[in-house]
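Weekly structure sync - notes
Attendees: PM, LS, DV (DV joined late)
Agenda: review two folding runs queued last week.

Item 1: First target. Sequence and structure tokens pasted below for the record.
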Amino acid sequence: MKKFICTVLLITLSSNISLAEKPPCVTFTPRYNSISINALGTGTYVGFSYERLIRQRLSLEVGFGILGVGAGATIYMFKPIYLGGFVPYIGVKTTFNSRLSGGERNITYLPIGLTYFTRNRMAFGLDVGPSYQTNYSPNGKVTAEHASKFPKAVFSIYGNFKISYRF
């Protein structure tokens, strides 16, 4: 009986150790293209973007929004990229847009964020980072006094939320 208990205990412990050594997520061969719906980011206020993974950790993005256009590059921090897990990234993105009240501006920012890659070709991303914003013209009614103060540069915080479909 003593040998039986020792054998069962040994099998149980060895199976638990082997389960603990497996990674929690599954690596995958990435889908190289994605189409996204964005809030802020390269698609300005609300827009769409196309992203292409050109290396395993580097992607380029072009966005079109309601009032502007943008472009950017993203570097995924770690490889391999996992399905069912969060992948951190950094990058540089810029957007040029108009405002409803008038005025034009350019925003360049350094995003720090996370993307969650699902098993069914979807991805969800959120980033935020410091930005450099150049206002080329004032909002609203332009007076000579206001126009003389432009272009004007400001440091601020900018971000992006995106829902992507990878193909």
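Item 2: Second target, run right after the first with the same settings.
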Amino acid sequence: MNQKNPRKERIKAWALLVSACLFIYSFGVYIGPWLQQYIYGMDKIVQVIEENGIDAGAYYYTEIEGSHAGQQYLTQTLQLMAPEHYGLTLPLISGIIACLLILYFGLRALPR
């Protein structure tokens, strides 16, 4: 018979929960801002958001004054900017590989 230790299972579950929360936090605080320079147009979007004083964490932007002007400016800017990287580039391929690795390890961590 294969009886699992409930204490070990509980510790494993808490460890997975804490590690997932730490990953999400580190992505938002460290990895996301570092990736900002590598994502097409992201520097411009962040600049416009900061210049117009837009709360990027707001759920609805109907109450914020600069949101409409900022949205129009971003739309025009992104339409005029030509991407530096187009097609199968190293950032695209590495992003796909990172996503596949996250899926692989996530599926392996699921209980059977």
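Discussion on item 2: DSSP finds four helices and no strands in the chain.
Action: LS to circulate a short write-up before next sync.
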